[in-house]
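Extended Data, panel c. Modelled sequence:
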Amino acid sequence: MGFSVSKCPYTWLRNVFSNAEKTSSEEAAHLRVQVNRDLKTVVDVTLPARSARWLMDVIPDDVIVKIKEEGIPISEIQEYLSQATTLVPCPIFTLEEPARVVKVWLE
């Protein structure tokens, strides 16, 4: 499994979103969720970007549990996205397991 964040998940979170805000002047149009299992794409969903504001509701519960186990600050990500004035294109997170990779991003 793999996902690296800084020792402080909050610092990592702020860096991801502040860097995205600095490098992009455009607003994200879509929230993308892609799941690959055994190197095959089994889920490839495009939702309106505003769906990111309730991200935890669109991710299956078993994935939320694994995200939290990996130390991904999903609650803080959800909080940030729900309060952001503008959603800009950026990666949100990638969860890598031996047989499954889950990628979530704004584009």
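Residues 1-10 have pLDDT under 50 and may be disordered. This feature is highlighted in the accompanying rendering.
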